[in-house]
Here is the input.
Amino acid sequence: MIFSFQICKFVQLNKINMHIFYAPDINTNIYSLNEDESKHCSTVLRLSVDDLVYLTDGKGCLYKTKIIDNSKKKCIVKIIDIITEYEKRDYYLHIAISPTKNIERFEWFLEKVTEIGIDEITPILSNRSERKVIKIQRLNKVIISAMKQSKKAYHPILNPLTKFEYFVKSRINGKKFIAHCMKTKKESLKKLYTSKQNALILIGPEGDFSPEEIALAKQNNFLEISLGTSFLRTETAGIIACHTINFLNGY
Here is the structure.
């Protein structure tokens, strides 16, 4: 990819009036929005030629662009500046969570953790999981919408549905935690986590992890944690875990 202007790394932008579009395939100075995005840009936002919009490739690059053709079917923009590693965090957060029976609740989880800040999400299939099928394409649309709305330049990785037993045995870099509701000796996440550490947090299904799964996680160096005294829904627990890590890192 070749661009004809200086690339910046650290720039503060006023996000209030920033219109951002997802462009994972961007590779030239001139870019055409797809028909849906073009209609949104021209008809909904009522943007005109010479107005500024921003594109992101979902990999940390934020492209400042100027509209050169505001067609409702093919809005064309010209890149005038690039910011790399836009708002890149110095830690990595991965949440592995059992999808909820009501898929709308899981979509809500994806939306909120994307807005808060997360790097990777793995849906896990555990013994008590009630949902055994997910549609990755649909869920990625939820993530993209939340990424655009919250002005993010990174698209969180969404992995395929993975069996719990396989996942906990895989090699993972960082501190590993499992949140569950069983009455065992547990410390709060904020006591066990140190800022700037990479973290992986396991969140169970509505019926919680089974004792055998908790034992297997412990055998693979996962630390048992509490997310508070309330009995939380799966998606709520995932959002609290995400917010706690971001809060402890000053975000």
